[in-house]
């Protein structure tokens, strides 16, 4: 079998014993017939109501796969990492267990190859192509096939979408029609006593900025901190107001014409120097 055919086969996730189809779990496949047409019941006898069959599962919900399978004697110690296969048997079922089937399970993500299939034959002389001989047990021969495997991609379940979700869109909604501006009665701010003009201006500006957006981003570290001028710079509370007013009264405010007349410069010297004729040297 080619590598492409191997990759399309699901691996074994569990191997177990079962008495019949009734005791076999739903996600397991029971091997009732060997490859050469014989009954695959390991308890041979007359009028046996309960059997002893091998079954396997390929359900990947557990997240593990069967990476190896072996048959050992009941006197041998079980190797590290291996375990006996599970038994789904009727209470009255008895079987000789001189040999035991053991498997090694590994997480799906940690292995690249696993046991893809197992088969039984009743005659030891029969060979199965592409299968590996595992061992003989109770007159049967167990074969396995290993190779790379692929995990099925989970399919997304369709969800019922409500009418409200269907109405949602990532496109920007159309702008609402503009309405004529209406005058709102904004309460007039009354100037408080002993407040500077700067503080009054800041309060009005803060009110205009924060009235439209009251989110946390508009809050600063200075919110709630009172602001006032030092008494030395408050002209209304200081006795030096009259002295400063007298000094300010002596300042003469000059117009543009006064400044041009006071600092007028004709550049006559430079113009006369530029007009001088450079003397020529006679040959």
UniProtKB/TrEMBL annotation:
Q: Which Pfam families match?
A: DUF2464
List keywords of the entry alphabetically.
Cytoplasm, Endosome, Membrane, Protein transport, SH3-binding, Transport
Where in or outside the cell it occurs: the entry states: Cytoplasm; Late endosome membrane
Q: Which organism is it from?
A: Goodea atripinnis
Q: Which residues form the MABP domain?
A: 9-148
Similarity comment text for this entry: Belongs to the MVB12 family.
Q: Report residue spans for region: Disordered.
A: 177-197
Q: Does the UniProt entry include the keyword S-adenosyl-L-methionine? A: no
Mode of membrane association: Peripheral membrane protein
Keyword Metal-binding (UniProt)? no
Domain named UMA is located at 222-274
Its protein name is Multivesicular body subunit 12A
Primary location class: cytoplasm
